[in-house]
Amino acid sequence: MEKQQERRREAEPIIFERDTEETWLRLQEDREKRASLSHVAKDKDVPWKQNSQAYRKRYVQSGPKYRYTMGPIGSMTVSKQMLPPMGKGGKHRHYNEALLYVIEGEGFETHDGIKYPFETGDLVCVPTYCIHQHFNASSNWVSVFYCTPADFFDLLGIQSTEQIEMHPNYQVPETAQIIRGAQGQVIGYKEASGLEIRFGLDENKQILMDSKKATQFQGESKDNYDFYLRTLSDQTKWRQNAIRIIKSKERPWEETRMGRIKYLSHPNISTGLLLFDSFLQEIPPGGVSGKHRHVSEEVHYILEGRGYDIHDGKQWDWDTNDVVFIPVNTVHQHFNADPKKPARFISVQSRLYHYCGHGGFEHMEDAPK
Description:
By secondary structure, the chain is an alpha+beta fold. The chain has a domain at 250-364: Jelly Rolls. It has helices spanning 19-36, 151-156, 203-214, 224-241, 352-355; strands at residues 40-41, 49-50, 55-60, 76-83, 91-94, 98-104, 107-111, 114-118, 123-126, 132-136, 142-149, 161-165, 177-180, 186-190, 196-198, 245-246, 254-256, 259-265, 276-283, 288-293, 298-304, 307-311, 314-318, 323-326, 332-336, 343-350, 362-365. It has a 7-stranded antiparallel β-sheet. It is globular, with a radius of gyration of 25 Å.
């Protein structure tokens, strides 16, 4: 019987793709950028700048082109804002939430038309997609330290800011021509090149969110699909009723392994925030905190005192008003260099890592009792 000759396919040409290798190179570049940056932003070296919302200092800027250019932090923007006596910031809205700690002063927030008073030491929670504005209700300046999530919302495709009202002292670029609305309000400007920048409410998004708000799930869930219908209804209600002001004076101090801590935003505390943990920490004169490590990034704003941190064996000195950056997976410990006065700081830590399975702390050394 004659053998039937096996027919073999000709070898196809190999086309190389370098996605994996390019990812390695990009991640290595990120590591090198982080390693080259200081872990302390000296407040005196950071300039005040105007934007459409207020005058502010930006310690870490968001967006792909700014990634790891100002500090070794990629999960949040970090800023400080000043409001003049009886002044206000611009009115705006964005999908991402915002956390504000009141460093000094008294005033109030308006969230979707509702007024929420605040004072020194309070934590202001701005839930996702909320029209908000900051007001100074006193004859003194108000200063706030605030954080928003960074590139995360870009990746989700919903990063946006609707600037509804400019702050009162807003100035357009010198070479630009102001564009005004029917009531004479500033609604944008036109640059000499012809480029127009327009502000205002996005009506299409407003219609979209109004539609979601009007959808209410009734009855019991009958199947797994109903879970998602109920989720929309529950999250809409949460956004409307979420706690906006955490009163620092009403929160207890805890003597923990890491030291004396007062939690303001925590998974066990009901707040209007989903993506941030925040706490106050006090280090006694000449004292030291515990030592630990976590995957998540963390930032501190020094409210009082002077001292230093040890990050992976390297010392970083800080003083009042400075901002301390703790990159991912960094062993860190805090030291008060003043033998007579306590040191205090407000800490903000991204909770995003917790949601993707990398939460929790590795504890290495207790704070002295």
